[in-house]
Amino acid sequence: MMSRLKELYFSKIQLDLKTQFSLKNKSMGPKVLKVVLSMGLGLDGNDSKIVKSCIEDLGQISGQKPVITKFKKSIANFKTRKGTNAGLKVTLRNEKMYEFIDRLVNIALPRIKDFRGLSAKGFDKFGNYTFGIKEHIIFPEVNFDKVDKIRGMDISIVTSSSSKEHTLALLEKFNFPFIKKKTN
Question: Whole-angstrom Cα distance, residue 94 to residue 98?
Answer without folding.
Answer: 7
